[in-house]
C-alpha cells in the first residue's frame, strides 16, 4: 500500500460552494480523505510520503469531453496552415513544406486551412497542381469537414467528373463538371482514411507524444472520438504499460455493428480505458457551409447545409446502438441538425434510460430557442467546445446574422437544467483547457471579442472549470469515479501557476499547469 499526503493551501473542490481544502490523502491511486493537512497527517499511516504541490491553485484534472487524439498526434508533424490569411501565403507554405519533406511520391497531409479568411482566391486543385503536381496532397480544412486535393490525389482516389456525390457528402465541381479539388463531408472520408493509413507507421508512438503534451496541459482524461486505429493504438500503449492518461474511447459509426457483435458496451473497461459512445454525424460545419440550417446561408442562397443522416436513418442507428448497450454522441452544428437529433433521441429516450445510457449532442452550436429546454427534458448532454465560439465570431455574423437562434447557448442550457460538458475538438482548436475556460467566462462580458450580448448570462469561473472536470465525467457515465476531488475518486489533479478565481477573465487562457498527477503519481512536473 502506497500513501501520499498531497498538501496545498488552495485545493478547489469545485462543489458549487467554493469549498477549498489544504490537503488530500491518497492511497494506491485513490483519494482516501480531503481536508485539513494537520488532521490528515494524524490519520496517515506510518511511512506516508508528503508532497507539497507547487503553484497557486489545485483542481481536479481536466477531462476533454471531445478530442481527436490520433488526429492531434498526427498534426504535430504535419503541414499547418491555421495562421495563414491569404491563398498566396498558403501556397508558398505548401510548396516549401513539400520541398523540404522527404517521402518520394507519398502523401502530404495536414492543412487546417480556413478559406473564409482569404480574400485573394479560393482553394482549387489547379492552384495545388501549379506548385506540387507529383505528390498527392490531402489537406483538411480547419473544421475538418472539407479536404483540398491536387490532381494526383484525385487520381489516386479515383475521383473524376463521372464520380457521383455520396450520400451525406459533396464533390465541388466547376462549370464543366470537373472536380475542383474540394470534397465535403462523407465525400472526403475514403481519401482521408487512405492518406492517414499510408502515412502513419506507428500510431502508438505518435499517441505517446500527444499524451505527454496533454498531460502538460493538465488533461488527465479524454473522451476520444477518433477511429478504430486509435483504439488499437491506445490499447497497445495500455498493454505496454505506457498509457498515462485515462481514455473513454468512442466508436465510429461504420464500426457500430462490429462493436456490438464483439460485445463492446459503453462503460465496460477499467480505470484506464473504457468503451465510450458511438459517434454519429447529423451535419457538417459552419465554416464549410455544410451545417444543416433551417434557412439558407446569407452568402450562399439555396444552400442550407448538408443533412448527413435524415431523421429516420439517424433514429434507426440510435436504436441499434442503444439496444446493443452503446451510448450515442451525435455531431450537430446547425439548428435543423440539432432539432433532428433531439427528435431521434426522443424516440430512444425510454430505452436509453432503461439501459443506463447517456445520449449526447456534440457541439450543439446553433439551436432553435425551444430546443434548449428539450435538452434538459430528455436528459441529453450538451458536449460543447467554447473555443469554437471565439473562432466563429466573424462567421456567425456574416452567415447567420439576424436569425432567432440560441447560438453557443452554454449558460442557457445550464439554466434550463441540461448537463454540460466542455472539450476542445482538438486539433480543430487548441487542446489547452484554460483557453476554453477563458472563452466561456469572457462571453457576454465587456471584454468579449464579440462584445456585450444583452440578456446573456456569462458563465462563471467555477461553472467553466466544473464543465471541464465533473461535466465530462458525467457525460461518460464515470462521475462516481473521476471528475471530482473527493474520497473514493481517483487521484487525478493539476496544480496551476495562478489561481483562476483571482485571475482576470482575459488572462485565464494564459494560466499554465505546473504539475499533473494521475492515479496518485506525478505525470508532469514534480521532478
From TrEMBL:
Q: What class of enzyme is it?
A: hydrolase
Name the source's superkingdom. Bacteria
Molecular function in Gene Ontology? hydrolase activity, acting on carbon-nitrogen (but not peptide) bonds
| Alphabetical list of InterPro entries matching this protein | Amidohydro_3, Metal-dep_hydrolase_composite, Metal_Hydrolase, YtcJ-like
Q: Which UniProt keywords apply?
A: Hydrolase
Q: Where is this region: Disordered?
A: 160-181
Q: What is this protein called?
A: Amidohydrolase
List residues of the Amidohydrolase domain: 50-520
Q: Per the UniProt record, which EC number(s) apply here? A: 3.5.-.-
Cite the PANTHER family for this sequence. Answer: IMIDAZOLONEPROPIONASE (PTHR22642), PROTEIN LONG AFTER FAR-RED 3 (PTHR22642:SF2)
